[in-house]
Each structure stands twice: as structure tokens, then as C-alpha cells.
């Protein structure tokens, strides 16, 4: 991999006024469901927050802050929108306007408040756009044009790891990018061969990668040097297919991963892996219209997964990781829905899920606040 080209420029960003919307049916005072568990606090129309139709591309949870959504219009513009609870209920605040970002864009919020967007530019290929809160921007171009990409940030904020599937270029590649220097410091092939759908940093400095390898959902582990550690773990060896979806890692190093495990995607599975072996496996029914995003609670005891399918309710489900039981479910839509990401609110105040309810008004990019 050649040295990365790194240029600095001032990005023309717009600090927009706050845009707030609420469904008016629920509010911060309704914090528990009928069973004493969490409930839907309200929804935010993210299209309205940016003044038009937008695609919801990613959701990131900054250290000590509310989640930030990355949206794009599919052509010329992008936005960063903070989602949280205000005095009058759920709200969305547009933070910055960005140049166009690709549909593969992934967002990370650094500890200093900077935003890091990894995306494929139509002109320069795969690049890292770092935007400080004051609008100063740096572009790090990697000189490649991947068919698919997944990223993860090291615990010390110094290294961005990327797994890139390159067209006609042999095995997919793992890259370690030194963010301060703007160079690729290490590269390695993805082992086993396949496409990495999700990456997560481990507390020990290594990586957990979900690999789609010949119709199997595999969990691969790597050290900080990008060398494989141990053998890959098949997340669903008894299923006819395995399509890996998302991964998170607890503070103790337990890997929590999700996968679709049926030809029609309606069946899913949540798996925990400890010391290279499956510890817990939980079946998820009715998830064909869910990205099966997963986020683990701060104490590492619970995983949250949005699930939706045409014949099933759209819900945010909590699963006890020790026993594998479903401990609560929060309804998000009255009917069908398509659900994507999930991220925690600041101060363990709840969660934000993203997606669209399918109703008479048509699909809208929506943030669902649960607490």
C-alpha cells in the first residue's frame, strides 16, 4: 500500500440552527413500560431536521455525549445531526453540513469532539474526512476504491482500522491508519478469505471482525499487528446460511455478534464468544427488515437489537447475555418498519434506534428514543 496522500483544508461547513421535532405522543415523563421496563420516549423526523429527504447512513455514540447521525442526500450534501432529549422531548440538532458522502460512509466521533467520516469519494476514492468542531477539516485519501468497507477506532483514538474488499485485487485487506501522521502504518490480508461486514476494537488492542466467507458467518480475531489470533469461529454452524451483521465487544473482552441465518433473512441469531468459543446463542425470529445492529450495555450484561419484519412488530429487544433470555421489548412502530442502527444516549439515559416506519406518509428517516 503506497503512502497515504494527506492534505489539509478549511471545509465550508454550515453551523445550522437547531431543528427540533417530536411525535407529540410520548415524552420524557413516560420512562417505563407497562412491565416496568423501558419505553419509547418519542421519535424525531431526521428529514425535517435537515430540511428535506435524506438517507440515514450511520449513527455514532461520542464519548460522554448523545448519538450523532450521519445523513446524505445521495448526491451533493451530507449532515451531522445530534439526537437526544430536551426539555420538551426528543430533539435533533443539526451540527454541521458536509460535502457529499457515499452510501458506504461510516462515522466515528473522537474524544476531542472531532468527527471522522470514512467514505468513498466519486473523484478520489476511499478517504477519511476529519472535521473538528470549529469546521477545520483534513482529508486523508487512501488511494483505493473498495467495493465494501468496515471500520473501527482503536481505544486510544490514534488508529483507524479499515477492512476493504477491493475489486479484482485478491483477498480483502486490513489497514491500520495512523490518524496523526495520515499514513497507512500496517496492512494484512483478511484471514479467512471473505468480506468483512463489521469490525470492533478489543480492549487488548486487537480486533474482532465478522467475515462473510462462502455463505458462512465467521468471527475472526486479530492482534494489534493485524495478524490472526486463534481459529475463526462459525457463529451458526447448524444453519443453512450465515450472513454476518454486526459486532460489539464488552469491556471484559466478550464478543457479541449477530447474523442472519436463513435464506429469507427472517431468522437471526445473537452469539457471544468467549476465549474463541461460542458461549451463548440466541435465536431471533422476524428480523428480515432489520440490519441486526447490536449494542452492549455499559455493564456488559445486556445486548440491545432492533428487530423488524413484515409479519412481526418492530421492536427494540433487550437480551440477557448470561442466560440468553429476552428480558424486554420496546415497540417502535404500530406496523411494519425497516430498522438500522442503535446507540446509547449520554449518561446511560437510554438508547437511540434508527429506521423508518412504513405507513401512509411513506418512509422517513427516523430516530426512536428509548429510555
UniProtKB/TrEMBL annotation:
The protein in question is named DNA-binding beta-propeller fold protein YncE
Where do transmembrane segments lie in this chain?
none
**Record key words, sorted:** Signal
What are the boundaries of the signal sequence? 1-21
Domain of life assignment: Bacteria
Amino acid at each position: 500500500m503506497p503512502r497515504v496522500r494527506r492534505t489539509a483544508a478549511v471545509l465550508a461547513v454550515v453551523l445550522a440552527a437547531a431543528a427540533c421535532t417530536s411525535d407529540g405522543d410520548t415524552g420524557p415523563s413516560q420512562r417505563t413500560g407497562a412491565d416496568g421496563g423501558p419505553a419509547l420516549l418519542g421519535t424525531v423526523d431526521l428529514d425535517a431536521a435537515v430540511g428535506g429527504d435524506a438517507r440515514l447512513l450511520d449513527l455514532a455514540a461520542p464519548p460522554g455525549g448523545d448519538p450523532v447521525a450521519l445523513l446524505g442526500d445521495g448526491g451533493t450534501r451530507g449532515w451531522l445531526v445530534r439526537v437526544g432529549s430536551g426539555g420538551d422531548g426528543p430533539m435533533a440538532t443539526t451540527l454541521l453540513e458536509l460535502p457529499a458522502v457515499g452510501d458506504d460512509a461510516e462515522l466515528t466521533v473522537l474524544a476531542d469532539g472531532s468527527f471522522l467520516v470514512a467514505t468513498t469519494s466519486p473523484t478520489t476514492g476511499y478517504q477519511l474526512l476529519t472535521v473538528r468542531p470549529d469546521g477545520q477539516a483534513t482529508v486523508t485519501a487512501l488511494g483505493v476504491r473498495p467495493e465494501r468497507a468496515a471500520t473501527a477506532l482503536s481505544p486510544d483514538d490514534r488508529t483507524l482500522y479499515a477492512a476493504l474488499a477491493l475489486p479484482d485485487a485478491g483477498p480483502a485487506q486490513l489497514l491500520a491508519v495512523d490518524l496523526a501522521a495520515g499514513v497507512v502504518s500496517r496492512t494484512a490480508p483478511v484471514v479467512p478469505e471473505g468480506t468483512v461486514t463489521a469490525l470492533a476494537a478489543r480492549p487488548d488492542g486487537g480486533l474482532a471482525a465478522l467475515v462473510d466467507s462462502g455463505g458462512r458467518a465467521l468471527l475472526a480475531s486479530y492482534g494489534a499487528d493485524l495478524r490472526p489470533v486463534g481459529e475463526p469461529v462459525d457463529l451458526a454452524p447448524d444453519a443453512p446460511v450465515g450472513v454476518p451483521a454486526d459486532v460489539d465487544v464488552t469491556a471484559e473482552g466478550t464478543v457479541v455478534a449477530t447474523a442472519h441465518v436463513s435464506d429469507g433473512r427472517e431468522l437471526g441469531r445473537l452469539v457471544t464468544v468467549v476465549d474463541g468459543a461460542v458461549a451463548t446463542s440466541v435465536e431471533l425470529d422476524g428480523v428480515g427488515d432489520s440490519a441486526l445492529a447490536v449494542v452492549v450495555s455499559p455493564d456488559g450484561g445486556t445486548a440491545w437489537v432492533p428487530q423488524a419484519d413484515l409479519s412481526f412488530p418492530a421492536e427494540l429487544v433487550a437480551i440477557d447475555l448470561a442466560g440468553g433470555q429476552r428480558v424486554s421489548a420496546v415497540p417502535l412502530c404500530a406496523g411494519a418498519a425497516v430498522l438500522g442502527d442503535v446507540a446509547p444516549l449520554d449518561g446511560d439515559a437510554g438508547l437511540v434506534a434508527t429506521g423508518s416506519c412504513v405507513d401512509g406518509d411513506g418512509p422517513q428517516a427516523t430516530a426512536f428514543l428509548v429510555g
